[in-house]
Write a structure and sequence with these properties.
5-stranded antiparallel sheet; 11% helix; single chain; mainly beta; 82 residues
């Protein structure tokens, strides 16, 4: 969990710009969405170790929150941004 002084609109804009996730998510080297983020949207991430994984948006409320899931060797990772 992290807190910020950014406005909700600025935070939402940063979350929607998948290509720039690596600028503030220290665990990522790259991120790419295949379509604009919305429920069911897909993309891929590459972590700092070079591991690539596909992701799918599993929860989406415009301007408020979203979540995505990606598979890992030992399970699934769910990231929820609210």
């Amino acid at each position: 969990e992290q807190t910020t002084a950014a406005s909700p609109e600025a935070l939402w804009a940063a979350w929607m710009d998948v290509a720039r996730w690596k600028e503030w998510d220290r665990g990522l080297r790259e991120a790419q969405a295949l379509q604009p983020l919305a429920l069911g949207a897909t993309g891929s991430i590459i972590d700092r170790s070079g591991n690539r994984a596909a992701f799918r948006v599993t929860e989406y409320v415009e301007g408020e929150r979203y979540a995505f899931e990606t598979s890992l060797p030992a399970g699934k990772l769910r990231v929820r941004r609210i």
